[in-house]
Amino acid sequence: MKFLLVFDFDHTIIDENSDTWIVKCAPERKLPNGLRNSYQPGHWTEYMGRVFVYLGDNGVKEDEMKRTMTTIPFTAGMIDLLGFIGENKELFDCIIVSDSNTVFIDWILKAADVHKVFDEVFTNPAAFSSTGYLTVQHFHAHHCAKCPKNLCKRKVLKEFLDKQLERGVSYTRIVYIGDGGNDLCPVMFLKENDIAMPRQGYTLEKKIAQLSQSLSPVQCSVLVWSSAIDIMSYLKLLIKQ
Asked: How do residues 186-230 score in pLDDT, each as one tens digit?
């Protein structure tokens, strides 16, 4: 009996968007209008690439970025939840699928000493160039019309499950914890026995509700959370069953 926990990162594990938080490093803590208005829907990664160039051009160094990023608050109860999962790792495999980047997630998880809870992190690869600029790339290519160009979370989840099956690992139940519009695609992939946990008041909860109104509800069960303590209470029930 093993459960797979799939976490989004921004507004789920942390209570902010890591990509917009980095703007605190910019001169006057804001971006020029031209740069801010250059975002095109579905092309967030390219936009963040331009943001990182702007920060680099303004002399913002790696250590300053790291200091800023590690001040992001975790969602209420999240550190307790991750501690609970860590104590029960024989029952839970735990992955992150996020549209953030490897550098930010690594910094934040390690600063809070919760990185060992996660078996794998699937996110956009990032690194500092020889000139000290942060660069970010697309996670993968895909053919899903519903998802942003750089990341289809359903594809990530499906490939992870296929790889685990090859290793002889299958899961009693998948629990998907997220908040955003790009979490709907993987949630629609979940089966009857699985559970989607959308964050209360966020886009994912609204989109799931719209689907049930249009009589094409998701197959899995849905349990809304507002604090990570709600998630922990559910997991405690799950392992008692």
From this structure: 999 999 999 999 999 999 999 999 998 887 789 999 999 999 999
Whether the model pTM is above 0.85: yes
The answer to whether the CB of 132 falls within 8 A of the CB of 56 is yes
Q: Which stretch of DSSP H or E encloses residue 100?
A: strand 92-101
Residue 57 labelled as part of a binding site: no
Question: Is position 15 annotated in a ligand binding site?
Answer: no
Rounded CA separation 136/100 (Å): 9
The number of residues making up the chain comes to: 241
Residue 8 annotated among the catalytic residues of the structure? yes
Is residue 63 annotated as involved in ligand binding? no
Domains with residue ranges and CATH for the chain:
2-15+75-127+146-239 (3.40.50.1000)
